[in-house]
Design brief:
By secondary structure, this protein is of the alpha+beta class. The protein contains six helices and 16 strands. The chain folds into two domains: 131 residues, 2-Layer Sandwich (60s Ribosomal Protein L30, Chain: A), CATH 3.30.1330.40; 119 residues, 2,3-Dihydroxybiphenyl 1,2-Dioxygenase, domain 1 (Roll), CATH 3.10.180.10.
């Protein structure tokens, strides 16, 4: 499974590439990134300023993938002018001083004369958290699945397929039903016929869930409007696990509060 990350750069659309690709919700591969401020599409003249902005761009792309700079394991640097390399060292140490990824330097021309440095990184999700775990403890890597209890299992499954693009899966000898998305899934239990073991109080409408999408909030609103799904609230600024997000709220057929968010 792969998921594409975009920075909003006009080059990505014009040329046909992604800022990053997340593979199996685990490895994150970022394209070579330069010091453009993508909000204004401007670039400062100095290599040190460009290096700092490049790292900010990388940090933002990694956040969309669920990573931090401390998850970076490999970095490639392209610097056209050899004299510009050493002035960048303090900036590089500021951003990579903890992760200390492998590093390769190339001296080569970049797309325009204004570009003085380009950085490409690879990251593995969760390794910074694993490294911080106490030697005698365990570290949770990610959520694998959760369980929703439904008043009408088929109606709930249809809603998630239609509204959130999940894929229904029937598994096991008991013909259990799950909804797959990304590298996770939701197992569905029919109220009154729950599988064991189960939550002590398993009731329809008691969940509050947040899902991350790469679609922008305006696209989410348009999609919901086309389906006739009522928006409970949003778009509204919230804080996700990796930083600021913009969220749109709705309810599924059981009344569970569903938040669909994108990282800013």
């Amino acid at each position: 499974m792969r998921r594409l990350i975009s920075s909003g750069s006009k080059f990505e659309e014009q040329i046909g590439y992604s800022r990053g690709v997340v593979v199996d919700d685990n490895w994150v591969f970022l394209s070579g990134t330069t010091g453009y401020d993508y909000a204004s599409m401007t670039i400062k003249p100095g290599v040190v300023d460009q290096a700092e902005q490049t790292f900010r761009n990388i940090e933002a792309a990694l956040a969309k993938a669920g990573c931090t700079m401390d998850d970076v394991v490999e970095a490639w640097f392209i610097v056209p002018d050899p004299a510009d390399w050493e002035p960048c060292w303090p900036v590089i140490h500021k951003w990579f001083g903890k992760a200390k990824p492998t590093s390769t330097l190339f001296h080569a021309r970049l797309q325009t004369e204004a570009m003085k440095i380009e950085i490409k990184v690879t990251a593995k999700k969760g390794i910074s958290a694993a490294a911080a775990a106490p030697a005698s403890g365990i570290t949770i890597d990610r959520l694998d699945h959760l369980v929703l209890t439904c008043a009408d299992l088929d109606a709930t499954a249809n809603w998630y397929e239609r509204t959130l693009g999940m894929t229904r899966e029937v598994f096991g000898a008991e013909r259990r039903v799950a909804l797959k998305y990304g590298a996770q899934k939701i197992n569905l239990h029919q109220a009154g016929r729950e599988f064991s073991p189960r939550a002590r109080i398993a009731l329809p409408g008691s969940a509050d869930l947040c899902f991350i999408t790469t679609a922008r909030p305006e696209a989410v609103l348009a999609h919901l409007a086309a389906l006739g799904v009522k928006v409970e609230e949003g778009p509204v600024a919230k804080t996700g696990a990796m930083g600021p997000i913009t969220s749109v709220y709705m309810r599924d057929p059981d009344g569970n509060l569903i938040e669909v968010s994108s990282y800013d």
